[in-house]
Amino acid sequence: MERNVSSLAIVLHSQRYGQLNRKLTLLSVDFGIIDVVSYGARKSLKAVKAEVLTDGQFFLYYNPVKKEYTLKDLKVLADHEVLRLDLMQTYRALFFCEMMIKTNGGESGKAYALLSKALDLLSSLPDQANLVLIQFIHQMSELLGLRPDYRICPVCERPYGVNEIISFSSSLGSPCCKECASLDSPLLLLPGMRRYLTVTADLPFEDAVMVELNPTTTVRIRTYMLRYASLLCGGYLKTLSDGLLMTS
């Protein structure tokens, strides 16, 4: 592998690394999810700095002995600072990043494109923030190859009725009819919610977020999809632990 490399990437996480440095977690097109050290980022005015949510072309040095990436330069495409200035928008954006880390992102090029689009839409369409959140999870489940079929029960293979309320199978991690559902599952998908997810399944992200929902249905689908996201990520997400995204 060449020592001087570059890739389109987004900063998913940043943490202190020693006295003067920061360790960044990047979702990159070419190398997947990697850790990169930004030396001097905490003190030096000349050091290259990359805030969480920054989207750009990252120029790196790879040390094959230490198997370590170092940030050398950065061409910012979008800093998404507007998201960091708003508490709820920050929570939503960090939820996207945490979900990428927990699921390892899927195919890196498609994962980068999805997250980049989600952050751009969250920045430009603040009034549709909950729909961007819903659609990110919906699109992410497709990227991971785990999107459910909302037309037929995966257990008994019976087509759902038009007005049928769908339950959930914890063992399969998928919606199913009530006869095949787990007794302990709180996830219920009402007919209107299911129609929305079915209609938007094949739409581009930017078109899907423009499909209108009434406020009550939006809240119900958001709650459902956030709970589903927790299951996709193994049951715990730090960004959901205080319940803020569930209620705001």
User: In total, how many beta strands?
Assistant: 7
Alpha-carbon distance between the two ends: 46 Å
> Could you give the order of the helices and strands?
EEEEEHHHHEEHHHH
Quickly count the helices: 8
Largest sheet: 5 strands, mixed, barrel
Shape: elongated
Q: Rg from C-alpha positions?
A: 20 Å
Q: What average pLDDT do the residues reach?
A: 92
Description:
- The protein is of the alpha+beta class and 248 residues long.
- 36% of the residues lie in helices and 22% in strands.
- The chain has helices at residues 81-84, 87-103, 108-124, 129-143, 191-200, 205-208, 215-232, 244-247; strands at 4-17, 21-28, 32-38, 55-63, 68-78, 167-169, 174-176.
- The protein has a five-stranded mixed beta barrel with strand order 1-2-3-5-4.
- α2 (87-103) runs antiparallel to α3 (108-124) and α4 runs parallel beside α7 (215-232).
Which helices and strands, and how do they pair?
Layout: E1 4-17, E2 21-28, E3 32-38, E4 55-63, E5 68-78, H1 81-84, H2 87-103, H3 108-124, H4 129-143, E6 167-169, E7 174-176, H5 191-200, H6 205-208, H7 215-232, H8 244-247
Parallel strand pairs: 3-5
Antiparallel strand pairs: 1-2, 1-4, 2-3, 4-5, 6-7
Helix pairs in contact: 2-3, 3-4, 4-7
Can you give keywords for this protein?
248 residues; alpha+beta; five-stranded mixed beta barrel; 7 strands; 22% strand; elongated
